[in-house]
Design goal:
By secondary structure, the protein is of the alpha+beta class. The protein has 4 domains: about 30-90, no CATH class; about 120-275, 2-Layer Sandwich (Nucleotidyltransferase, domain 5); about 290-370 and about 390-395, no CATH class; about 400-450, no CATH class. It is built from 15 helices and 14 strands. The protein has helices spanning about 15-45, 50-60, 65-70, 90-95, 155-160, 165-175, 190-200, 215-235, 245-255, 270-275, 345-360, 370-375, 385-395, 405-410, 415-430, and strands at about 5, 10-15, 50, 80, 120-125, 135-145, 150-155, 180-185, 205, 290, 305-315, 320-325, 330, 335. The strands form 4 sheets. A 5-stranded mixed β-sheet has the order 7-6-5-8-9, sandwiched between helices. A hairpin with a 2-residue loop joins strand 1 (about 5) and strand 2 (about 10-15). The radius of gyration is 42 Å and the shape is extended. The termini are far apart.
């Protein structure tokens, strides 16, 4: 057995050295384990300290409230040195979204508690295919208080937006109100409307870019009207080019239907007028019927043709009917034999149209009183029907026609007023140098001038 020197001044044999090394390793292991347990016990007793912003970043940009809640738990192992909440630019870049839109409009800028206070409008299009008149766009105007809606069709965006003036005159006169605010999106098609609103004193409100919530009422109305129009089109089987007529009829029906958004669930028409609308005259869109046709003096000519109803007219009391043979549209109340209703109901509808024509005075904005009340007919097919004759006779004592000649003016009850007006007109013409008085040559007829 040889001797090996493990340390200076010490002689050990190989077996003793092996035992010594093994003992030292065990002692080292035991000492190391004890040190680790002590260190782990020390780490658990002393949590990591740091600022709120530091742990906010370390925990994956966790929101500050969650970090503070986590630090209050002793088992989390963290301790906050402060509660300062500095702005985190990274969170703004990665998490920021749109501000929540209040469900209620309030304040003087949005007087939705009165009829005409706020009018919402939205434009939809281009539509494919075009309707039978070539229109591709539809624009609606919705009263925020009553949910009354009117739809206009147009071929271009600019033309669609310009219908606001027509709606304004119609709505203010019928509802005896004043429109104060027009709310739309920021589309360029409303630029012409901006100038008009500035002239008449109507306040303009525009929604934020890429945010449709501010004008949600008009956009939801578009969805409701289009859904009803598609359902009616699919049910009647008419070609898609009649979508414009279906849209208008859907708007007509909605204005007379219960509206959950109105107080008591009443219809827009009832809220505006105080009277529940009579909907017995409404029939299925595209219903087959027969319409009276003037024989024009021919004894054996047809006096009735088969047509299809594609809407109701708000200007003239009658149905909008389409003649399938020549694809012509006419408005008439001489409708009978409606297939989608019973015989008694069809007769009742026909009587109701005649009764409405006698009792109702049109409120639409027309060029003359007579034009507003009497049905309009094509220039190529002018005729005086018996119904027009009766209406003219009833209106003869109400509407006074202006005199057409000087003789008629001097023979009227207001001759003095007419003479004064004539003198003022002649004086104005002389002052402006419009005409030069000359003697009339013999044999020459003077031009007629009112």
């Amino acid at each position: 057995m040889g001797a090996v020197s493990s340390k200076p001044g010490c002689l050990l044999d190989r077996e003793q050295e092996t035992l010594l090394n093994t003992s030292e390793k065990k002692e080292g292991t035991s000492k190391s384990d004890n040190d680790g347990v002590a260190a782990g016990s020390e780490d658990k007793e002393q949590p990591h300290e740091g600022t709120l912003a530091t742990f906010h970043v370390r925990l994956g940009h966790l929101r500050y409230d969650a970090v503070e809640k986590l630090a209050r738990d002793p088992g989390s192992g963290i301790k906050l040195m402060d509660h300062l909440r500095p702005l985190c630019v990274a969170c703004a870049e990665g998490k920021q979204g749109k501000t929540k839109k209040s469900k209620k409009d309030s304040g003087q800028n949005a007087p939705i508690d009165r009829v005409g206070g706020v009018i919402c409008s939205d434009l939809k299009g281009p539509m494919t295919p075009r309707d039978r008149l070539g229109n591709r766009y539809m624009v609606n105007y919705v009263d925020h208080k009553s949910n009354y809606c009117q739809v206009f069709l147009a071929r271009t965006k600019d033309a669609a937006a310009k219908h606001f003036r027509q709606f304004l005159l119609h709505f203010e006169r019928q509802c005896n109100c004043t429109v104060r605010v027009l709310r739309t999106d920021g589309g360029g098609e409303y630029r012409a409307v901006d100038l008009f609103c500035e002239d008449v004193g109507i306040q303009r409100q525009k929604t934020e870019p890429n945010n449709s919530a501010s004008n949600g009422k008009a956009e939801r109305m578009h969805r409701t009207i289009v859904d009803k129009a598609w359902s009616m089109m699919f049910a009647c089987g008419l070609p898609l080019i009649f979508w414009g007529d279906a849209v208008r009829y859907a708007s007509y029906v909605l204005n007379r239907s219960p509206c959950p958004a109105n107080e008591g669930g009443v219809s827009p028409i009832q809220l505006l007028t105080g009277t529940a609308p009579d909907v017995r005259g409404n029939v299925e869109f595209g219903s087959h019927c027969t319409v009276y046709q003037d024989p024009k003096g021919k004894t054996w000519a047809k006096r009735g043709v088969e047509d299809r109803i594609i809407g109701r007219s708000e200007e003239v009391k009658g149905f909008k009917v389409l003649v399938p043979s020549d694809q012509k549209l006419t408005v008439t109340r001489h409708v009978a034999n409606i297939r989608t209703v019973t015989t008694e109901q069809s007769a009742h509808i026909e009587r109701g149209l005649f009764r409405e024509a006698k009792e109702t005075v049109s409120l639409s904005d027309g060029k003359s009183d007579m034009d507003d009340i009497l049905p309009r007919q094509d220039d190529n097919n002018k005729r005086v029907t018996r119904s027009q004759t009766k209406i003219k006779a009833q209106l003869a004592g109400v509407i006074k026609a202006d005199p057409r000649t000087y003789k008629e003016a001097m023979a009227s009850d207001e001759a003095e007023k007419w003479l004064k007006v004539i003198q003022l007109e002649i004086a104005a013409l002389k002052a402006n140098g419009t005409w030069k008085p000359v003697p009339r040559p013999p044999g020459v007829h003077a031009l007629h001038a009112k």
